[in-house]
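Need residues for this backbone.
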């Protein structure tokens, strides 16, 4: 790292670049050190096929992490939901800025909501978690596996060209960051669909031996948001305890309400035929307590047969 600036690695998609610039700008303002952006091509950007079959959550993170470990870049910005729960030796998530809206969003033709979609409507998503919950809510829908960037997915919704879908489900956070809120026809509240663990949060990852006296370190400390860290610690501990990844139909939602950390989890059969929910809360939570809450809820679910239900490899 230069004394005059830090480098930040990112994937080349529009969303990744937008998120990275937002995060790096915040660190620069707080730490008083400018930055340069370095684009990194990842395995997930090259391979084709269903995302759930391409190596899971690590498919977008591995290349970025390698560049940080090698010292080629000083900072990597990840979508937290794409980051594996296992720690990587030599790296640390030094900051989690305040989370954007964690909900899923329906983008449908003609302003339709999920309830208003006609019988047999075609809905696109590449997420097994969304597939299971959509099928549980609307078994009549035709679910279509899709990949591609946000714009590509939105363009598949009729009457656009080619317009082969009636709707797609995307993370609200990405649409908001891209200024595409106007394409959202319904925010899918947690009582309908629980989001992915960490959805809407960005993870700012650096080498564990980063000098704490640098502007980068000071900036990271300043932008770290404790309520977000508490929320996602509970959510990601659920995922880690279940030993599940992005191919598992598991949704979580944690939030601080008047000092109480509330956590809700859903585990579903991939075909949506059976859904298991569990909720718990913890007052005056710290990071250790948030992790314990997530582990407790996951163990309760496992005791009730969640591993069998979601076909987890436990």
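Answer:
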């Amino acid at each position: 790292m230069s004394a005059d600036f830090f480098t930040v690695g990112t994937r080349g998609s529009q969303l990744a670049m937008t998120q990275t610039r937002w995060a790096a700008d915040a660190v620069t303002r707080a730490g008083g050190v400018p930055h340069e952006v370095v684009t990194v091509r990842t395995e997930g950007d090259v391979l084709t096929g269903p995302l759930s079959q391409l190596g899971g959550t690590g498919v977008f993170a591995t290349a970025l992490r390698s560049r940080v470990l090698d010292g080629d870049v000083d900072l990597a910005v990840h979508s937290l939901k794409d980051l594996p729960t296992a720690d990587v030796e030599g790296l640390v998530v030094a900051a989690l800025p305040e989370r954007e809206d964690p909900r899923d969003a329906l983008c449908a033709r003609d302003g339709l909501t999920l309830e208003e979609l006609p019988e047999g409507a075609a809905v696109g998503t590449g997420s097994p978690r969304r597939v299971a919950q959509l099928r549980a809510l609307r078994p009549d829908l035709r679910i279509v596996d899709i990949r591609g960037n946000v714009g590509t997915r939105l363009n598949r919704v009729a009457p656009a060209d080619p317009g082969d879908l009636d709707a797609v489900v995307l993370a609200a956070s990405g649409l908001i960051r891209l200024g595409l809120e106007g394409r959202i026809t319904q925010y899918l509240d947690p009582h309908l669909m629980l989001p992915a663990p960490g959805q809407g949060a960005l993870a700012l990852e650096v080498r564990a031996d980063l000098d704490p006296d640098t502007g980068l370190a000071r900036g990271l400390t300043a932008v770290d948001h404790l309520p977000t860290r508490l929320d996602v610690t509970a959510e990601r501990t659920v995922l880690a305890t279940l030993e599940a990844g992005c191919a598992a139909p598991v949704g979580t939602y944690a939030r601080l309400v008047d000092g109480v950390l509330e956590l809700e989890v859903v585990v579903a059969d991939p075909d949506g035929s059976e859904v298991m929910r569990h909720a718990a809360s913890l007052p005056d939570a710290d990071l250790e307590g948030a992790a314990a809450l997530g582990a407790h809820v996951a163990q309760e679910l496992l005791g009730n047969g969640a591993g069998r239900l979601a076909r987890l490899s436990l």
